[in-house]
Amino acid sequence: MSELEVELAIRRKEENREEETETGEEIMVLNMGPQHPSTHGVLRIILKLEGELIIDAVPVIGYLHRGIEKLMESKSYHQVIVLTDRFDYLSPLVNNLSYCLAVEKLLGLEIPPRGQYLRVILAELTRLESHLMWLGSQANDIGAITPLLYTFREREGLLDLFEMAGGSRMHTSYIRIGGLLRDVPQEFIPKVKSFCEAFPRLMKDYEGLLTKNRIWQMRTRGVGVISAEEAINLSLSGPMLRGSGVKHDLRKASPYSGYDQFEFDIPVEKEGDVYARYLVRLEEMRQSINILRQAVEKLPSGPINAGVPQVVPPEKQRVGSDIESLIHQFHIMVEGFKVPAGEVYSSVESPRGELGYYICSDGSGKPYRIKVRTPSFVNLQTLAPMIKGRLIADIMAIIGSIDIILGDVDK
Amino acid sequence: MGIEEKLSENSIITTTVEKFVNWARKNSLWPTGFGLACCAIEMISTAAARFDLARFGMEIFRSSPRQADLMIVAGTVTKKMAPVVKRLYDQMPNPKWVIAMGACAISGGIFKTYSVLQGVDKIIPVDVYVPGCPVRPEALLDAIVKLQEKIAKEKLRTKDESTSIGTIGTTGTIEK
Amino acid sequence: MNRHQLEQLEQLEQLKNKFPDGVESIETRLGETTVELKKEFLQPVCEYLKKEAGLDYLADLTGLDLGVEAGPRYAVVYHLYSMQGRQRLRLKVKTSDAVDTVTPVWKGADWFEREVYDLLGIVFNRHPNLTRIYMPDDFVGHPLRKDFPLMEE
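The joint structure predicted for all components is written out below.
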């Protein structure tokens, strides 16, 4: 049956039964999406309404399912890096990092300190970029249109930094297996420093507009509450978990890429509502600036890549002049290096939660199976229980606070 | 100051109805917000402060397709989403134009898989193709300017759906 | 070996003693421990692990197609995590068609199992709502199976 027929069938069933609620009102079935300005993408929700009150909600996803996991099984490990960018397209470098850490675990590679610190810097810049987009779009959905333009101003500055280092604003694929594509240019670190100086002052703009704003608090306090036990039972992660009082962050619980050398706090709020998650993410932005300052201060010099020529492509200038580099380049790009058989699960703390890669290798140059544990897919399960019993206007606030990305949800 | 000084007191402008209507249409294109995937983020960046789509007349992205005349297909169109795209395109009133933004909308992009439609022009006619993955905001602005040039050349009498389709690169133009 | 790893070793010993027929093998590689179970023992072992070993968080649930000629053909893989003890454990269950659902133990397994059903065709007994989640409802076939083509010709 096509979707239109499904909807008509639901409506016909409701009309035939002449179902009425206790107050004598009729039940209406309303379709929201997949094209909707506030659903952050192609998300469809079928709502059963009594007036403005929501009785039941069924999210329908899969409108952006591109079959990337199956596509990865036919590419070499090096080619898969480009595909990982497209899952969570607001934090592409963190996706690269998660995948590369998993493959490096299978290969047993050690990344030198400069490579690790640069990865931390890029991951935290990505976290800032993602949270800025979240803030702008959540405020826009609830009705506060001004913060969107302010956050995009900062975001452009960050995208300039990514372009300086990796060559592209989004989808840089800059973090590679064994390290990074190339070292950052001279101007990069001073620009990051000046960004860290300027940003706290700019954050006051957004906070001044929203945090103590009575309308914002009325729209977000007490809305979409999840308790700590429910959050753990539902496998939530990221700010959804920390907003409900669970102090869990993978950067502290199982540190990766040198995060154990930095001092930072994990923000936690107790109420578990939309406002709590808003405060958690704001504080995370401040902690990211904290980590960036430390990383930029202590950045060591040295190589950025693990010295394994079978896995890390050689520099382009050497490929034309040195026969060994040419052979390695050919072997990596055309045949693909082989990875020892085994399985590994490795996860990082993305701006949305736990982003994990489960890689099964059969010893050949192509992965046998890659499963991507995406945070938005798991966090979206809470949408239906959270919006039952609430008004339609609360749906936008709740979807914004879950912070979904449909590329992550639909893979 | 400006144009008023150039015009004399009893100023009359002569033009054709066709040119006038095309001028009005091309300078007030209203896009429908149809962001599907990653290109949607760059589309929002184009509408934000640095690249500012509003100076081209596209002040607000209309939420309802019935109030829009431009559909920017930004992102991958899957086979599950294809009937929805077609329905939205049919709901737009004439005259309407379509920009296929990004490699996925043009031809499926890097996703040659079981669930991706290999190009949105399989279901709706496209006026301008913009390559890129993702499309830079400057390239999208270039595409809009090219679309405006195309609209300026349209004939008022017969507007047929399968108009000539021009491809655009960031360095040059190829017109059929 | 640190305190958490020692604790985990003890818990695995106790698990083997409690379910001697259920546990097929316990293996540790690359710092990760994998326990292979018989599928009839899945739900009791999961309840035991959640209560006694503190593995209260289901990080991931996925399916593997072991190949058209393999018997049994599929494996369902569970990644568990303990918030208090910060340990991870992997459970593997082999099946040729169906396993029990673990939604009574971890509610978060709901959509994970629907995804595995949709893409691999493994049925989860007593799941509250086992329907397709990614592909349209009238789609025929299960895309992640090894004999399903990447793209129709």
